[in-house]
Each structure stands twice: as C-alpha cells, then as structure tokens.
Amino acid sequence: MASLGPEIRRRYQVRYIPFAEPGQKALLVGVGAESWLEQKLLETKGYQVTLADVDPRDPSVVELDLTRPPPEMHGCFDLVVASDVLEHIPDDRLACRGIFSLLKAGGLAFVHVPGGDSTAPLNDIDRQHGHVRHGYTEQQIKQVIETVEWSSMRYLKTFNLIERTACQIFQRGSRDVAEKLLEDSPMDGREGNSHLFLLRK
C-alpha cells in the first residue's frame, strides 16, 4: 500500500455501505492496485461484484466508460462504488449521469472524491495519478452531483484531522501506529478535506 488513502476509504465503505439483500449486485468502478480489497469487502457484505474500468488490463474486468455506459448495463446494479474516479474524467457531470443510469430504481451510489480545487493547476501528484483536475471544493463537487435528480443525497466529509495525521505517520514508515490511530476517527462526516456522497436513485 503506497498510501493510507485506500484504507481510509475502505473504512468509510465498511461503515456506510449497507449489507446486501440476497442476489443484489454491485459495480466497482475504477480498478487499481487496492481494488481486490474493495471487492472482498463488498462480497463480505453479500454483493455479487462486477469490476469495471475504462482501460481494463484483466479479462475479468468489464470495459466501461462512465460517460457512455452501454444500454445493456442500464438499471442493472443495486450499488455503484466510484471512489476517487470523477477527478480522472474530463466530463465529470456526464459521468455522474452515467452512474445514475447504471443503478436500479432505489439503488445506491457511493461516490468519493478528493478535496482540492478543480480550477487549480495540476501538480506532479495529479499528473502521476492521471487526474484531469486538482480535486474539488465542497461547492464544486455538489454542483456536479446535483446535475442528477437523486431521490436522496447524503454528504459527508472525509480525511479529518485524525485521518490526515495517520497518513503523515504512515508516510514516515510507522504503518501499525497509523492504522491504530485510525481506530480513533469518528468517521461522522463532520470534518475533513475530501468528499463522500451516498446517493439514492
């Protein structure tokens, strides 16, 4: 694990993604080095999981452009998870509508994006990770999300002070200390630099 970010996002998934009813399907969008852990988590919660990426490197991963989901995938999923995906997509509003189209009626989207400012210049880390924008302010990402008429929307902040401190400790090589510190995070969504949405179709 190159950073503690994926572990923090998974802890929010554990807390805020509900357990599945029998036969419910989840789509995990954006495959990276840590995706197998997210897949395992969703399967533990009872979901039948499909992995998708715009440029899949594995035959088990479905090719999917969120801005143009194929009609045969519309309305197929009870849960769509897109963690730190929208900042990679030039037309993030169209991608948000794509997420909506993939969900069944009443389905849930778990959408997480990093904090920042989408109007700011890209830095070296952005370019290294393939970002097309330098994160989002709360107002910026809400404008994107609200282009779709969700039946309900819950907004939470992530990467609070405890979580950011744990990341710094992790970067200094103290993984066990960092992960222990994360246990003290309230994960209540009240404070943080990044953004999480629980969106109901």
Question: What is the fold's blueprint, element by element?
Answer:
Elements (H helix, E strand, L loop, with lengths): L4 H12 L8 E5 L5 H10 L3 E6 L8 E2 L13 E7 L8 H11 E11 L10 H5 L9 H8 L6 E7 L2 H11 L3 H8 L11 E7 L1
Parallel strand pairs: 1-2, 1-4, 2-3, 4-5
Antiparallel strand pairs: 5-7, 6-7
Helix pairs in contact: 6-7
Overview of this protein structure:
With 201 residues, this protein is of the alpha/beta class. It has a single domain, classed as Vaccinia Virus protein VP39 (Rossmann fold, 3-Layer(aba) Sandwich), CATH 3.40.50.150. Helix content is 32%, strand content 22%. The protein has helices at residues 5-16, 35-44, 92-102, 124-128, 138-145, 161-171, 175-182, and strands at 25-29, 48-53, 62-63, 77-83, 103-113, 152-158, 194-200. α6 packs antiparallel against α7 (175-182). The N and C termini lie far apart (33 Å).
Q: What tags apply to this protein structure?
A:
alpha/beta; 201 residues; seven-stranded mixed beta sheet; globular
Q: Tell how many strands the DSSP assignment holds.
A: 7
Order of helices and strands: HEHEEEHEHHEHHE
How would you sum up the major sheet?
7 strands, mixed
Please identify which CATH superfamily we are dealing with. Vaccinia Virus protein VP39
| Strand portion | 15-25%
**Name of the level-1 CATH class:** Alpha Beta
Q: Percent helix among the residues?
A: 25-40%
Q: Unreliable segments (pLDDT under 50, ≥5 consecutive)? A: none
Strand order, biggest sheet? 3-2-1-4-5-7-6
Secondary-structure content class: alpha/beta
Which fold name corresponds to the CATH topology? Answer: Rossmann fold
- Our Rg estimate from Cα atoms comes to 16 Å
Q: What's the number of helices?
A: 7
Euclidean distance between termini CA atoms: 33 Å
Proper CATH architecture:
3-Layer(aba) Sandwich
What integer is the average pLDDT?
A: 95
Please indicate the count of domains: 1
- Shape summary: globular
